[in-house]
Amino acid sequence: MSIQSNEINRYIPTVVNYKKELESLNVQLGKTTLTGKINSLSVAETLFLYMEETQERFAELQRKLVNSLSSSSLDKVSKEVTFKAQVVIDILIRNLFERTADIGFLATDDDIRKFLQKDANISKEFIASRLQEYIKKYSVYDDIIIINTQGDVVANLDSSNKLQNSKDPLIEKTLSSEEEFVETYRFSDLQKNKKNALIYSAKITVSSDPNSEALGVLCLCFGFEAEMKEIFEKLVDPKTAEVVVLTDKKANVIASSNGS
What we know:
Helix content is 53%, strand content 16%. It has seven helices and seven strands. The chain has helices at residues 3-9, 13-39, 45-106, 110-116, 124-137, 169-176, 224-235, and strands at 141-148, 153-156, 182-186, 197-205, 214-222, 245-247, 253-256. The radius of gyration is 32 Å and the shape is rod-shaped.
């Protein structure tokens, strides 16, 4: 058995217990053989050779049994981990997919369009109230931000976010895009308090006509950390030492069940 296998076996309780029992039996067999040699000098030497051979075969059987048990335990753990990893991805993909519907719906809201066109009947407070109602239904967002074509923040929900003008390239990318939405995950001045922000942005236009004039950009800031924490809490057993992590294509850790 390799050093690596021995290291792994230390963390498998079933393997540790059976290994101790087998080692104890092997020690007793060794003691019996030694005692027989000392006290029974008249016994044929072939009997002791047979007992020693039996002890060696027992040791080999012990090794095979421990290896088999270890392999079986690791296979079970591997399947459980694979299942949990797949569930994490499936839940996350489903939740993020739902956000694409949110951004498309809210970006075509008539009151938001009128607000960006400076309709006197649509105040900033009224828009803030509309956005707040939306947040109550979909609590997965940290902030909803409305930006005009010059990058000015004309309305948002997070009172701690005092940003007045954004230089984030996602604004220009969204305004020039023919896609229904743009997904961005990185640092953004739209959420300076985060190392990386997950933002869904869509162009707000005068009407739903494909050639309609752009009025601004709607940004839905997804509460990624809180979402991953909730997913991990439902799947990870706190009684074990397991850690589930989400990585990007470069193997950089994006989220971890232990908070690191």
